[in-house]
Amino acid sequence: MGIVEEAHNVRVLGTGERIIVLGHGFGTDQSVWKHLIPHLVDDHRVILYDNMGAGPTNPEYFDFDRYSTLEGYAYDLLAILEELQVESCIFVGHSVSAIVGAIASITRPDLFSKIVMISASPRYLNDVDYYGGFEQEDLNQLFEAMRSNYKAWCSGFAPMAVGGDMDSVAVQEFSRTLFNMRPDIALSVAQTIFQCDMRQVLGLVTVPCHIVQSMKDLAVPVVVSEYLHTNLGGDSIVEVMASDGHLPQLSSPDVVIPVLLRHIRFDIAV
């Protein structure tokens, strides 16, 4: 196993001609894909990895400067694909990883035949003629809560993000992966994500994008999926799912997995 593979806990499962790469979002790790993987491994090669800073990664490898922008994560993704000698893949990215995949595809469009975006947003802050869902004061309060008592913040944030109560399996799972992050790293990652503005690069994305979105999502209003569809440079399609929460692949697998499989297996023209 190469250095990059080891650092990101890369796993390759299944067999098949088509390669599927799964990228997780903030506060989770590759375990967030547990409901989807069994449906893919029989006829695809599935590549799983952890973003640097996720709980299972070595916190000593986390470079606060490198990961102060999303480009740092995009470089990691490209390094993983290079080390595994991937020539083309379908990239399925959740939340921030959807945008990371889009950024990586600008540099190497040949490596991506399609990007499936789940709960993706290029900017979380409201702006003139743009509704991202948050005001700066909202984010300042979120960061301060993380800074002052990280465990208490996790306990409150997890049910809001997932869209369930603390007794639900999905909320408990998200709480676990949130708790596993080192608090200072979690705060830095959250600041990088929530303060990012990637709207200006969307037009440079030429790879076909399938945008799937929960009907109700604390972090990403439905209107953001339409914004992505309108502003991405290549072909795109939007599907709003009858699911609730920012981690629908974890909280509503019965609804979401069939949708994801359809978008993975079929092209926009179909």
Topology, number of strands = 7
- CATH superfamily of the domain at 3-122 and 198-265, please? Alpha/Beta hydrolase fold, catalytic domain
Radius of gyration: 17 Å
CATH C-level label of the domain at 3-122 and 198-265: Alpha Beta
Unreliable stretches: none
Mean pLDDT level? 96
CATH topology of the domain at 3-122 and 198-265: Rossmann fold
**Alpha-beta classification:** alpha/beta
Order of strands in the sheet with the most strands?
1-3-2-4-5-6-7
CATH architecture of the domain at 3-122 and 198-265: 3-Layer(aba) Sandwich
Q: How would a textbook summarize the main sheet?
A: 7 strands, mixed
Query: Could you estimate the helical fraction of the residues in percent?
Result: 25-40%
Order of helices and strands: HEEEHEHEHHHHEHEHH
Per the principal axes of the C-alpha atoms, what is the gross shape? globular
Strand content: 15-25%
How far the N terminus sits from the C terminus, by CA atoms, comes to 38 Å
Number of helices: 10
Give the tags:
single chain; alpha/beta; 7 strands; globular
Write the SSE topology:
Elements: H1 3-7, E1 11-13, E2 19-23, E3 45-48, H2 71-83, E4 89-94, H3 96-107, E5 112-118, H4 136-148, H5 150-162, H6 169-179, H7 183-194, E6 209-216, H8 222-231, E7 236-244, H9 248-251, H10 253-265
Parallel strand pairs: 2-3, 2-4, 4-5, 5-6, 6-7
Antiparallel strand pairs: 1-3
Family: Belongs to the AB hydrolase superfamily.
InterPro entries: AB_hydrolase_1, AB_hydrolase_fold
Domain AB hydrolase-1: 20-252
